[in-house]
Amino acid sequence: MSSGQAAAGAEQAKPRFTAALKHRDLRLLALSFIVDGGASWSYNVVLIAYVFTRTQSAGWVTALVTVRWVVGVLVGGYAGVLADRYDRRLVLMVSAWLASAVTVGVAVIVWVEAPLWMLLLAAAVLTAVCAPVRPASGALIPEVVPESDLVAANALFALLESVIVVIGPGVGGLLLLLGEPVWGVLVNAASFIVAALIYHRLRVHSRGSAEPGGGAFTQWVSGVRTLAKHHKALVLTIFLIIDSAAANSANVLMPALAQHLGSDETGYAVLLAANALGSVIVAGIAQRLAASKRLAALITVAIFIQCVPLWLSVFAGSVVGAVGLQVISGVGMVIVDVIAFTTLQRDLPRDVLGRVLGTLDVLILASAVLASVLASVLFAQFGLAWAFGIIGLGFPILALFGLPVLLRLDADVARRAERLEPITRTLDQLDLFAGAPRSVIEHLAESAEEQDVPSGTVLIRQGEPSDALWVLETGILTVSAVRDDGVAVDLPDVEAPGYVGELGLLGRTVRSATVVAGTECRALRIPGEDFAAALEASAPSPSMLGRAGTRTSRTSVMPPPVEPAPDPAQ
Q: What confidence tier does 283 reach under pLDDT thresholds 50, 70, 90?
């Protein structure tokens, strides 16, 4: 390995939070996530407290939570379609403005103490209008950061989510001290307005392949089929569901665990904070973990790391003793979340990514509901130790059934990467695209046809359709052109490693020059449709655009210099 390669590898191994946050749009997405997420958690606390205080009924609280879960499951698929049908930045803005208006309506209901069925209806509508946010923002993240910073970006959001889960309810508690729950609701309405203004400042424009006017159900099914065809993505989705189910079932039992360990609400908050601390610890090394070629073993072990300490916490003897176990559990949870989610963003086509993430949200929410019910039943029937034991050991054992599939996929990925490595190395060296996902480079490498080209062979003829990009691995290509004014010009030779043919593909025009093999060459022919698909997934690099501009200027006729007009005063 050269010193340059070693330095690059060392750079990849370092945490890249700083590098990820250099991207303006990611900073804006993170800021809106903090504003909206923190206020929403505090709003939940305020609203639940209001409903219980007004009714003294756990049934009404359950109804409030359940209606939001049910609506989330019902509209999640359509929310993903919206994230692929329209400009995702616009989807985020409209969702935030609508959510603000609905939340003001909730404040009015709380202020006048309207019938509670109206509050349930408003909560359902709010859940529906907020549903597109996760698939739209999740599909935008790969658009605003290069592939090298994608893991760090997702780790950052996992870290922020863990912090918000702890701080948000605390803010809600402080708002309750004001005595009027309507103020907590209005704070949430204001947060949606702030989020909408932040989304307005985003520069990225991105949308999927779900055309407006098409059947929403058909378009959603298209995204689901894409997920089903990618076996690796499908198995990772199952792991994300298991991860979410374990976390939500544990959260249901956490107050009982704090009481079992001799504490109260304070102990409950400490245990949640400890779990979030685990997220902070592991987020910094997520980049290195994601680079592992043993994805199957890593994610399976992470599920065990997440779940087993939950069971062991029952025997810790005190909240202090359980804190360390909760930290370890948080580490495992974030490893699964970040690596699985990042892999989905990398491997799945971006034109259906919103629909896939919307479907994932539905599955995760449904699993959260079922796991919460399961945890309650287990606790009621068998007690705390057995409930945590079934969760802490049952979910990891369930995950083991997916291990053989992941192992086979790991082996297939390793063999494919080894086969494509010489070609991907050449493409990386040429710097064709700005922050292209690895899957894009590998797809180009797989579509490339390697050819031995005898000296004198014409690869490209001026005036013919642009049908391919040629990448030169060895040899020299000579280039000539006839300018618009009829003058024939010889252009600089292209030496390996290099490429020709990008001008016509970028501009969707005919060939602007003739390229002939000056010596015996070895070249890669990449079909034009595959190059165009790569351009849709990732922008051309400044290097490619600069070279294209230089080549265009060499075949264009320069206008004659303009003589200065005579000075009338002379």
A: low
